[in-house]
Automatic annotation (TrEMBL):
Enzyme class: transferase
UniProt cofactor note: Binds 2 Mg(2+) ions per subunit.
Sites where the protein binds ATP: 101, 159
The protein's name in its UniProt record: Glucosamine kinase
HAMAP family for this protein: GlcN_kinase
Residues bound to D-glucosamine: 264, 372
Superkingdom of origin organism: Bacteria
Residues that hold Mg(2+) 1 according to the record: 269, 281
Binding annotation for Mg(2+) 2: 281, 283
UniProt short sequence motif Substrate specificity determinant motif, positions renumbered to this chain: 368-383
Entry annotated with the keyword Transmembrane helix: no
Organism ancestry: Bacteria, Bacillati, Actinomycetota, Actinomycetes, Mycobacteriales
């Protein structure tokens, strides 16, 4: 193919190629046809199986041309079927044992996933699919980018946006047992994120004044972009003095502990499965420049991302389920509060309470809402109702004296 830049050869006439498309670079699984030509592979053509075979044959870290292969716990499996719900990657289940993800849109490196996964494995973090391996590719400028990842397949796992929306809707519709289930889920996820941060505590350093100013400047830049993208009604709200006052808090974060956190945490990154909850996707925040995705973050940024996504899940529930609006607002607040309290309590019990300073929780939640405005305007206009609803909810918390 004329767009192929590089290829990692696998067994049996299969390969993983780096391909140039109109939308940028993509990792494309390919198979050789009987006439010797290469075509894009489909689930069932065996390219995912061939990648597992490579991981089994090359444990540890291997350099193969411009590719680096990290192999941890892989084993051979057979039989491929596609996952259709993943919009970020092309995902294939192999033998009901592993999930192979081909990166549909390559993000320029450096890439945080290899180091973060190594740290989590070394420190015994239990709440993630067992990582089998991953493959990175080195471009001509020397930057490494993730092109494929392989994780344990969790049968019965439910995407976070599904379980959160369903539990919130059930709790609002019928207080009692369903509400208890939502509160238990929020507490359990808080404990999981506390364990995640405790497993990364060895990376802790202290934020400098430059770090604090960078966080504030990034939030203000997102606000400016959201204003430029918003319709007039939303723009009036974005121009409120309260927003600037909330974001100003980020400039005072010098001296705060920072760690190599998740960086893009929301309910969609937390699977619910018969064994509990599992955190996925340690690729960092895709909206950040490559050099910033690998930088340490305050733990509160991860907490804010997950907490705010519970609000967004409630907004989705209100649109798609017949539930009382006031009841929905009540259970949203309760779930968010239960999550943050559980997180703080468990982190302290694990001996790392110093990592979490909630002073800027609201500021980072606000920044996430602003990012949702920009995302909806650029890529998914039908999502705009979520940040349009979330923004006044967050600002009203201050008027009501909420957390």
């Amino acid at each position: 193919m004329s767009g192929d830049l590089d290829s990692l050869d696998l067994i049996g006439g299969k390969r993983l190629s780096i391909v140039t498309t109109a939308d940028g670079l993509t990792a494309e699984p390919q198979v050789r046809d009987s006439d010797g030509s290469w075509r894009r592979a489909r689930p069932g053509d065996g390219v995912a199986e061939a990648l597992l075979a490579l991981l089994v044959a090359a444990p540890g870290v291997s350099e193969i041309g411009s590719f680096t292969v990290h192999s941890w716990s892989a084993r051979v499996a057979a039989g491929e079927r596609a996952i259709t719900v993943d919009q970020t990657n092309e995902s294939v289940i192999v033998g009901d044992a592993a999930v192979v993800k081909w990166a549909a849109h390559l993000l320029a490196g450096p890439h945080p996933a290899p180091r973060r996964i190594e740290l989590l494995r070394a420190n015994g973090f239990r709440h993630m699919p067992c990582p089998w391996g991953l493959v990175t590719w080195r471009s001509e400028d020397g930057a490494q980018t993730l092109v494929a990842g392989v994780d344990e397949y969790l049968p019965g796992a439910v995407d976070g946006w599904t379980w959160a929306v369903d539990l919130i809707a059930a709790a609002a519709a019928a207080p009692g047992a369903p509400a208890d289930e939502l509160m238990a889920a929020a507490a359990d996820v808080g404990a999981v994120i506390a364990e995640l941060h405790a497993a990364l505590a060895s990376t802790a350093t202290i934020a400098s004044p430059a770090d604090a100013q960078r966080w504030r400047a990034a939030a203000v830049a997102t606000l400016d972009e959201a204003r430029a993208q918003a319709d007039p009604a939303l723009r009036d709200l974005l121009d409120s003095r309260a927003i600037n006052e909330i974001l100003a808090d980020l400039g005072a974060m010098a001296g705060t502990a920072v760690i190599e956190g998740h960086g893009d945490l929301h309910v969609g990154q937390v699977l619910r499965h018969p064994g509990g909850y599992a955190v996925i996707d340690f690729d960092g925040n895709p909206v950040l420049p490559p050099a910033e995705r690998v930088l340490p973050i305050p733990a509160v940024l991860d907490v804010a991302g997950l907490a705010q996504s519970l609000t967004h899940a409630a907004i989705v529930a209100r649109r798609h389920h017949r539930v009382d609006e006031q009841a929905l607002a009540r259970v949203e607040r309760l779930a968010r509060d239960r999550f943050t309290r559980s997180y703080a309590t468990h982190l302290a019990a694990l001996g790392h309470g110093e990592l979490y300073d909630p002073a800027c929780l609201r500021a980072f939640r606000l920044q996430q809402v602003l990012r949702e405005v920009v995302y909806a305007a650029r890529h998914l206009p039908r999502w705009m109702y979520v940040p349009e609803t979330a923004l006044p909810m967050l600002l009203d918390e201050g008027i009501a004296g909420g957390p």
